[in-house]
Recover the amino acids of this structure.
């Protein structure tokens, strides 16, 4: 039996902050005891990690990543190997990525393909959601089987007609099915049919620059789709999780529905909290680096998102990590913003940016852990194995130095992408050591993990329902 003790740190979970030593046995948390007490002093171990002056936090749970996603004629530039290594560098120890059903094919084929990409390559544990692009009688039956085998959430798109898009009837049917089988529908809420009209009209006017991506994908069309998704879920009697919420008007829709007592939940992402349409308007096509959907919004939306995170109208911050290199990938959209592959890199930056938000007074330290670790784990059936530090949990633990300063940059990051969305941003706080099931993936800022350590992690159904 291998034993590790982490001594002297401040253990921060979603519910507590305690000066405690943590005993790890065979990859799991075995016990916590107040530092300096006889109980803690009595522990012997093969390895002792000194966390004096540091935080001891659960590994991050990022429930929205797209490694190797095919999009717009190219593929997201991080593989499961490079992307999960970068995640570990940033203090994330679990990802839930999106397997994709292509139109005309089965869910099973899509899921098998994603298993093949990930198997044996990941540095940290991973699970899958399923993108349902083709709702039909067969797909609906397959949803039940997937829930039974641990793929308990399904993403649908009200955007991207002709690619991932589902119409309201398909959405309602999938929601009705999830109401029966316990699955959770995750909605990309933007009115894609209307947006495509505005795209066509903008291009006809010669408006080809990346900033027009933000103008045509209107906040009102995010809010409208959010409202429609909420009401369809209400009719179906199903819970709903709205992904990548960026518009204050969409937050208002979620807040109203929650006030009515509906089981609707919202996720936002660091890019909506820290970046804005100012970035999309950067000259010389630099704005392409910030093209994602839902799009970045004017700065005034940020305060509403932060408030939503404090008041629990928004519950989760995940990254929607979907990197495309500027050179050769984002550049596909020179002269036509609608051809810029959609997505931003960020899997490595989330824990640090949210720690900076603690220092900036947006959220508390415990709320940081709640929105980045505990709630995503609960929402997607991974708790308490993931998302907390408690006896029985997997020893996915980060030793976090809250005083170290860093400057975010593509020169120093580990994601396989040639730019940083946060280039030059100074933040205080940095990951020092990362354990995944007790094994050191990062040791005092050296990568000590290995591809294949990370394993597929089946999930139970949502544990967050009221
Ligand atoms: O722009 C984005 N978000 N790309 C990834 C696909 C999605 O819609 O989440
Ligand atoms: Zn097929
Ligand atoms: Zn989406
Ligand atoms: Zn996404």
């Amino acid at each position: 039996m291998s034993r590790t003790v982490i001594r002297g740190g401040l253990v921060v979970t979603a519910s507590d902050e305690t000066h405690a030593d943590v005993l790890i046995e065979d990859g799991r948390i075995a016990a916590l005891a107040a530092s300096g007490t006889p109980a803690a002093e009595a522990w012997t171990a093969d390895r002792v990690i000194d966390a004096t002056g540091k935080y001891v936090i659960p590994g991050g749970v990022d429930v929205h990543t797209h490694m190797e996603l095919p999009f717009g004629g190219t593929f997201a530039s991080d593989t499961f190997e490079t992307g999960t290594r970068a995640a570990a560098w940033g203090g994330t120890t679990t990802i839930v990525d999106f397997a994709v059903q292509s139109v005309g094919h089965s869910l099973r084929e899509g899921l098998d393909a994603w298993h093949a990409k990930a198997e044996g390559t990941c540095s940290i544990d991973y699970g899958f959601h399923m993108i349902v692009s083709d709702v039909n009688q067969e797909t609906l039956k397959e949803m039940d089987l997937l829930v039974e085998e641990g793929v308990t959430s399904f993403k649908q798109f009200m955007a991207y007609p002709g690619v991932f898009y589902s119409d309201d009837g398909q959405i309602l049917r999938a929601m009705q099915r999830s109401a029966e089988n316990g699955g959770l529908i995750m909605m990309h809420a933007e009115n894609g049919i209307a947006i495509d009209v505005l795209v066509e009209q903008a291009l006809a006017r010669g408006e080809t620059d990346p900033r027009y991506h933000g103008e045509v994908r209107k906040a009102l069309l995010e809010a409208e789709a959010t409202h429609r998704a909420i009401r369809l879920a209400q009719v179906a009697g199903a819970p709903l999780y709205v992904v990548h919420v960026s518009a204050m008007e969409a937050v208002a829709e979620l807040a109203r529905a929650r006030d009515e007592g509906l089981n609707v939940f919202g996720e936002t992402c660091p890019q909506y909290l820290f970046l804005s349409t100012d970035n999309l308007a950067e000259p010389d096509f630099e704005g392409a680096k910030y093209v994602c959907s839902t799009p970045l919004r004017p700065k005034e939306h940020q305060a509403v998102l932060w408030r939503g995170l404090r008041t629990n109208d928004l519950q989760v911050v995940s990254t929607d990590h979907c990197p495309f290199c500027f050179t050769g990938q984002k550049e596909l959209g020179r002269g036509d913003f609608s051809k810029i592959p959609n997505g931003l890199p960020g899997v490595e930056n989330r824990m640090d940016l949210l720690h900076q938000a603690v220092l900036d007074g947006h959220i508390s330290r415990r709320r940081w852990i709640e929105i980045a670790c505990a709630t995503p784990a609960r929402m997607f059936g991974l708790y308490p194995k993931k998302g907390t530090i408690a006896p029985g949990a997997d020893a996915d633990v980060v030793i976090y130095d809250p005083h170290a300063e860093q400057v975010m940059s593509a020169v120093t990051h580990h994601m396989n992408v040639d730019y940083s969305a946060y280039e030059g941003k100074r933040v205080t706080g940095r990951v020092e050591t990362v354990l995944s099931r007790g094994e050191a993936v990062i040791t005092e800022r050296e990568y000590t993990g290995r591809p294949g350590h990370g394993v597929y992690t089946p999930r139970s159904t949502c544990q967050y329902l009221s």
Q: What stands out?
A: The domain at 59-379 is CATH 3.20.20.140 (TIM Barrel). The longest strand covers residues 397-407.
